[in-house]
Design brief:
The chain contains 13 helices and 15 strands. By secondary structure, the chain is an alpha/beta fold.
């Protein structure tokens, strides 16, 4: 039967011997346009950020806190800051303190171990501050932690700028609270001490040989049994295979011009910094405005691991050791989480291994441990952990 107009496919186009349907052409065109859409998507569609955004009211609360802390620090006559890179001179009449800053969104699983750690310490040599996510059901432990939860805590999410905000909040609270807070140690609920309080205090405050990087640059001077020159123990990594992906997670040019890629750094969010550097952190506005931006790449967005090392590396690289005092095991990491030790692994041998450092006389803290590690850790606390 001859072909008539009624038997022809109404939505087809004949090109030589090949017949294309309109649907086929549409699909083919979409496939061709996918690469273009992929390139333009960051400019067309808003970034998807899984974390809770920092509200304007929370931002204003923080700014008010930071300004108050900065003003109080400036008016304090106890600590004098010289213009050189890492000079810190203190008065003979006051005792220097270490501020222990705990950042958590769960219970403080190892509070009993830390209680033992602080038990033998002179109460005039330390302060404790806890930032607990108010949206989490965190139980306040008794003892040294009971009244140390800060009032202005806000919600926190992993891999988001909220962790930077929480840390800055802790630093500002500690600066505002006590002018004798000299070192600020940021810890999590999964951290444990590896030494006695005395060992930690002496290593930071008076030891001339603890920090290997300082000994390489010459002998340290002391006055009134404290070091005149202090450095911050913050990890600063400049070469890492994922650094570029982390840098462009907000967009290729999002960090410019304040943070060019060659200035972008990585490192642990758990560190021990000096008072002078803590003030640098809470006074900063320029870099914070960049790092608080939402990311397009969720799997490469960990601002809490880049803000602090980038800021301190840019402002005072010689005042930083470039390593952390908190030991972490990245073997078998999963979804950005470090290896988590189990109760069956706790032993005196493990503690000795965790202490070993190529950068200092010893690591002072370690993470990450499952909550059920508490019992075996308490068993070896007095005879192993706190025996230096």
């Amino acid at each position: 039967m001859p072909e008539t107009s009624s038997t022809k496919c109404p939505n087809s186009i004949k090109i030589g011997p090949i017949m294309f349907t309109t649907q086929f052409l549409l699909v083919f065109s979409l496939l061709l346009s996918l690469p273009i859409l992929f390139l333009l998507a960051p400019r067309i569609f808003p970034p998807h950020n899984p974390s809770i955004p920092i509200s304007p009211s929370d931002e204003q609360d923080d700014l008010d806190l930071f300004r108050k802390a900065t003003a109080v620090a400036a008016s304090s006559s106890f600590v004098t800051h010289y213009p050189s890179a890492h000079t810190h001179f203190t008065s003979k009449s006051k005792k220097l303190k270490i501020a222990f800053l705990f950042l958590t969104n769960t219970d403080l699983f190892f509070a009993p171990l830390w209680e033992q750690f602080f038990k033998s310490a002179d109460k005039n040599l330390f302060n404790i501050y806890v930032h607990a996510d108010p949206y989490s059901n965190v139980t306040k432990p008794k003892g040294v932690f009971s009244s140390q939860f800060i009032r202005n805590a806000k919600r926190t999410y992993r891999a988001s700028p909220t962790l930077i905000s929480a840390t800055r909040r802790l630093l500002a609270t500690a600066i505002l609270d006590d002018p004798t807070n000299t070192f600020f140690a940021v810890l999590s609920q999964y951290c444990i001490p590896l030494h006695s309080f005395k060992y930690v205090y002496d290593s930071l405050i008076s030891s001339k040989s603890f920090d290997f990087s300082s000994s390489e640059s010459g002998p340290e001077s002391t006055q009134y049994n404290v070091k005149i020159e202090y450095k911050s123990f913050v990890e600063i990594i400049s070469k890492e295979r994922r650094l570029w992906k982390r840098y462009v997670a907000r967009g290729r040019y999002a960090m410019m011009p304040e943070v060019p890629f060659e200035k972008f750094r990585g490192g642990s969010q758990f560190f021990v910094i000096t008072r002078r550097h803590a003030l640098m952190v809470i006074e900063d506005r320029r870099l914070w405005n960049k790092f608080k931006q939402p990311c397009y790449r969720e799997d490469e967005c960990f601002p809490e691991e880049h803000y602090f090392p980038t800021l301190l590396s840019m402002q005072d690289p010689k005042g930083c050791t470039k390593y952390t005092l908190t030991r972490v095991n990245w073997t078998g990491t999963r979804n950005g989480h470090p290896y988590t030790y189990k109760a069956s692994e706790i032993s005196p041998v493990l503690i000795q291994e965790l202490r070993k450092s190529n950068y200092s006389s010893s690591y002072l803290f370690a993470r990450k441990f499952e909550p059920n590690c508490l019992k075996p850790l308490m068993k070896i606390a007095d005879e192993v952990i706190f025996q230096d």
